[in-house]
Design a protein that fits this description.
alpha+beta; BirA Bifunctional Protein, domain 2; binds 3,4-dihydroxyphenylalanine; seven-stranded mixed beta sheet
Length: 339
């Protein structure tokens, strides 16, 4: 019996546990009524009376030793859980998800940067406008179809309050306030009463540009827009100006860029023409300068306007314009590393 007690003491000395639960299991194993030490007490009843005193003392010692050892194990865990609030500090941290810029913001910022290199500053105007800034000062005749209820969002109570249909309205606001030289671009949101489809939306974004100074020529415009096209779509890009009509420019043109997808060879994006239309432009009509109180004998200028969605679709190969407005993170996340 004394040997057994000695062996158990040694065993108890080397006890380890991996948490409060395991320490409790050890308490049951050694100290419960049916446990190892409990059984020794049962056995104790059967030993000869003359040995009882010595063995009894040893047995009590063993029980005390076991209780101390197991309580110490339990305490150590309870303490460490208190200190860390029960949190395992060795676990790896949660990874931080980086947000991403919206593709339209990426393209807008790139347009701003390209024109900034040519000395263009950025200005903005209001989205809720009046007839003067959106139409009249831009030389739209009173009966022009763009004023039609079909295209423009008006307010029933006051037909002079409307949502701007183009950012050209900011040209007027800037020219009314500032005398040339003016070299600025105006990014912003515009609104048209159009059915929503893969190619059209009732809300979209434009960037308007305006350069007014002495001796500004059509050649200046062409060179500026060629620079823009090559910065935006690649240095091999060619441009083509087709005669067009806008009330606020004379002459007016529409600008195409060579298709960056097929390098001008013809594909389904450029409809096998090799060219993609990306903006309207022209020399500011002298009437517009006059309506904005700028001396049209002294100054000339050019203006241009483009849709940001259209450029983003071409640049990123997006086939449906509605994707830009749905804010589906599976779509948005794809532009993470673009800029
Ligand atoms: N405002 C025109 C539109 O929304 C675009 C435009 C064309 C702007 C010619 C211009 C320009 O400044 O000169 O379709």
């Amino acid at each position: 019996m004394l040997d057994k007690i000695e062996a158990l003491k040694e065993e108890l000395n080397g006890l380890v546990a991996n948490g409060v639960d395991e320490a409790e299991e050890l308490r049951i194993k050694y100290l419960s009524k049916k446990g190892i030490i409990g059984n020794l007490f049962d056995e104790f009843k059967t030993i000869p009376a003359d040995q009882k005193r010595v063995i009894g003392a040893e047995l009590n010692n063993l029980k005390k030793f076991a209780a101390e050892k197991i309580n110490a194990l339990k305490d150590s865990f309870e303490k460490s859980e208190d200190e860390t609030g029960g949190i395992d500090l060795t676990l790896p941290g949660d990874s931080i998800k980086m947000g991403s810029r919206h593709p339209l913001a990426i393209v807008r910022n790139e347009i701003i940067e390209i024109f900034a290199r040519l000395g263009f500053v950025v200005s903005e105007g209001p989205e809720i406008e009046d007839d003067w800034h959106v139409f009249s000062a831009l030389n739209f005749p009173p009966e022009h179809p763009a004023r039609d209820m079909q295209d423009t969002f008006f307010i029933e109570k006051d037909p002079d309050v409307l949502l701007r249909t183009h950012t050209s309205s900011v040209q007027v606001r800037v020219m009314e306030k500032t005398q040339p030289p003016i070299r600025a671009i105006f990014p912003g949101r515009v609104f048209r009463n159009e059915a929503i489809s893969a190619r059209a939306h009732c809300i979209f974004h434009q960037v308007e540009g305006l350069y007014v100074d002495e001796d500004v020529s059509f050649a200046d415009m062409k060179q500026t827009l060629l620079y823009f096209a090559r910065e935006m779509f690649g240095e091999k890009t060619e441009i083509r100006l087709r005669p067009s009509y806008f009330p606020f420019t004379e002459p007016s043109a529409e600008m195409d860029v060579s298709c960056s997808i097929c390098a001008g060879k013809g594909c389904n994006v450029c409809k096998y023409t090799g060219w993609l239309e990306i903006m309207g432009c022209g020399m500011v009509d002298p009437n517009v300068l006059e309506l904005c109180n700028i001396d049209n004998k002294k100054y000339t200028g050019f203006a241009f306007g483009m849709g940001i969605e259209r450029i983003a679709m071409l640049k990123f190969g997006v086939k449906d314009l509605r994707l830009f407005f749905e804010n589906d993170v599976r779509f948005l996340n794809q532009f993470q590393s673009a800029f």
